[in-house]
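Possible race condition, two jobs.
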Amino acid sequence: MHINAGVAGLVAAIVLGKRIGYGSENLSPYNLGFAVIGAALLWVGWFGFNAGSALGSSGGRAGMAMLVTQIAAAGAVLSWLAAEWIGKGKPSVLGAISGAVAGLVAITPAAGFVLPGSALIIGLVAGVAGYWGATALKRALKYDDSLDAFGVHGICGIVGALLVGFLAYGPLSATTALPEGSSGGMEQFIRQVIAVAATMAYTAVATWILLKITDVIVGLRVTEEEEREGLDVALHGERIN
């Protein structure tokens, strides 16, 4: 899901092009407080997303999914801040909440398959990978992804999907039909690589086609005047001051 969203966001950013003033004007987040509130809501809600996938609280699988979700998110916050501190000379609140989302994204494909120690590894790797994706990679490829959909969701989704191929602990996913569960190893890692590649290819092509169809029917960008005024006012006639 996150790889899908990240690649779709990347293709959309490339097709739409850069925002007016990108690279020359201050386009930092409008309200950092709202961003923190949003990240906090995401973090809490993610427990229901990951642990709720067990469809019940018996057997300990839901509890383990909740635990590894918390550990990975916390680990990613720390590693993102460390990378930001090294790279920019100071950590930031925006970096902390971005790291939390990076860890939550990365642990999602692994939540029902890994133990706490492996979850910490995934979170630490995801924090650094997400920071790299949102900074160095974006600069290198010269695309304008205002929400870092690819840098955080795409890159960290790939990290989680690939690492679970090595770190999956079989007994956690054991069923009557498959008593040994799904264990990590080279065979499982190769399956994960194939799945990631297929998802990226399908999403990129499908998104490009849908964007081109949308452009023909209604267009993809507003006018320069509307963009500078802000879409809240231009399209909805209201905004929060």
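Job #2 (started ~2 s after job #1):
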Amino acid sequence: MIEFEPVIGLEVHAQVLTKSKMFCGCSAEAFGAPPNSHVCPICLGMPGALPVINQAAVKATILTALALHCAIPEYSKFDRKNYMYPDLMKGYQISQYDLPLSRDGYLEIASKGVVKKIGIRRVHLEEDTAKLFHVADNGGSSLVDVNRSGVPLMEIVSQPELHSAQDVKEYATALRQILRYIGVCSGDMEKGALRIEPNISLRPVGTTELSETRTEIKNLNSITAMYHAVEYEIERQSGILRAGGRVPQETMGWDESRGVTVPQRSKEEAHDYRYFPEPDLPRLHVTREWVSEIEASLPELPAAKRTRYMNELGLSPYDAGVLSAERNVADYFDAAVSAGRTKNVSPKALSNWLTSEIFARLEGDITTLKIAPAQLAGLVERVNDSTISNTQARTALIEMMATGQDADSIIRAKGLAQVSDRAPIRAAAQLVIDNHPQEVQSYLSGKHTVLNFLVGQLMKATRGQANPALAREIMTEKLNALLK
């Protein structure tokens, strides 16, 4: 039986975070606005209305391309992509064809422990379409909301170098991280700000030629949905080919409720769109000075940050991945590490408190946390210098998260400081021994695990303020003295 290998490329449409639309001054914040409230003659496609290029969208696209290691040509242009859909107000879409803003980049992913370099064919800029609402109870009519028409979109096209649903998931996750890190797209798939469309074909294992036909999947509102849709489509195409059939080239939709892909329409080729240069827009000259200026504004990207956390800060791959996944979290952690250097607080300790104690209690994202990075370093410092125990630090942390006060203020106000004076701890230890003769006898008989119970009683007797290490040491000394 012939075995088949999936060959997958991704087309990703990312809504650029700009205040105005791509070719007019209407607000680009269309999601949730009343229908047709952000429109003008340009985005309505009125005859004679002339477009003007949004420079901020061009800059965001070049920034994205640089983050994906793309080459930036000195000249670029816009084209008309012609097709007749009811959500396309002009009867064409202003996009880019043969002279895009960038080309020939790559994105590295780690799929099942193997690092792969996935080629990026191009990152180009275009405008979004309007949105259709199908009204079943009104004779099957459709309504058009033009708010989204003209919103700037980046299209990021990969090479067909992904070979599994897991590859696709890792690529989409890594790309979304980068877009959010550099602040060009919210990455919100549920709101349509990021639309990922896999193109899938199969070929016999061992061959290198691409299949003549492929399917494209739309209607994917999450990376999880995309993963399941790709898995299903691979299996569907495999079944057709094993039965001796031929997979038709078509656009498929993902039916979330049924967990299946369904045909929507035949899939177009580039020549079907009759591209030609947009006559109302000039050719773009992208100077090398501007590219250098944009490149200088690139932040440290997630993969580089994750590697630095492991190699320079000694974090585990898991912790490094968690802390580098979102830029707000990474910025907070970096600031805490910087503050901790003067307090002899290790990055590992800060990582532990942030990923376990704070994340477990945090409602919302890191921007809602009332504790400043330097305050977190101050709390860990008080654990390190034995002013408070881990248990007392958790009590202080809860108060810090609620009030925004620093650790020292809370320690003083609540009397949380540890007792490290041997005399009161010895007195409390003797009291525990006197009150628990049975457990003491068990210890003296060789059942040393009972020591944990006796130390716990000692901590309780000191209201948790005894230095735990000193409490264990003194209790052990007193018990061993009874053996003599």
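The two ends are 80 Å apart (CA to CA).
Logs attached separately.
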